């Protein structure tokens, strides 16, 4: 059985490294960890709360940070203000995934902390509706695909995919193998980051 405590400690150390690429990958893993082990939220949000959304540029990492803000906004004092800042920078955000997370999370935060989030919710809804209205004007078929995208079959579950590599990565837990989900010898290969 894995030592979740050691995993959490190491991920939090990665978050504190203040290297953009490490922080980005670690944020995605912390989000996934919290989805499976919500009992570790207090340890994680103490560290995640110190990460500035301005320092996270990679869309999946930004979406993970936003998800954490929404899920634990009742325990994160600055969550409504961070979300407000993200809404204010809506036009600079080009990732559809991040915009969708902002809309969803601002609503979640509003239900938990209405007075602090009311302004951000109004601005997020206005921005989101404006975007969708423009999309409808551009092409109704494209708008339909946004609302009702084609379903993609899940062919492989991560939990059962290549157990040998997963076990080797766990054995190399004190390295960046966990963040990049590659064993050490693959990390040193020039082709591993292409």
Structure description:
This protein is mostly helical and 194 residues long. The chain has eleven helices and no strands. The protein has helices spanning 4-15, 20-36, 41-48, 59-71, 79-88, 96-112, 114-138, 140-147, 163-171, 177-180, 184-187. Helix 2 packs across helix 4 and helix 5 packs parallel to helix 7 (114-138). The longest helix is centred in the middle third of the chain and has 25 residues, at 114-138. It is globular. The model has no long low-confidence stretch (mean pLDDT 84).
Which features would summarize this protein structure in a list?
single chain, about 65% helix
Topology (elements, then pairings):
Blueprint: H1 4-15, H2 20-36, H3 41-48, H4 59-71, H5 79-88, H6 96-112, H7 114-138, H8 140-147, H9 163-171, H10 177-180, H11 184-187
Helix pairs in contact: 1-2, 2-4, 4-6, 5-6, 5-7, 6-7, 7-8
Domain Clathrin/coatomer adaptor adaptin-like N-terminal: 5-120
InterPro entries: AP_beta, ARM-like, ARM-type_fold, Clathrin/coatomer_adapt-like_N
Organism: Canavalia gladiata (Sword bean)
Q: Please provide the count of β strands.
A: 0
Largest sheet: none
Helix content: 55-70%
Shape, principal axes of CA atoms: globular
Structural class: mainly alpha
As residue ranges, the low-confidence spans are none
Discrete helix count: 11
Compressed to H and E, one letter per element, the order equals HHHHHHHHHHH
What oligomeric state do these chains adopt? Answer: single chain
Q: Quick check: average pLDDT?
A: 84
Alpha carbon gap, first and last residue: 33 Å
Query: What percent of residues are in strands?
Result: under 5%
What would you report as the Rg, rounded to the nearest angstrom?
Answer: 19 Å
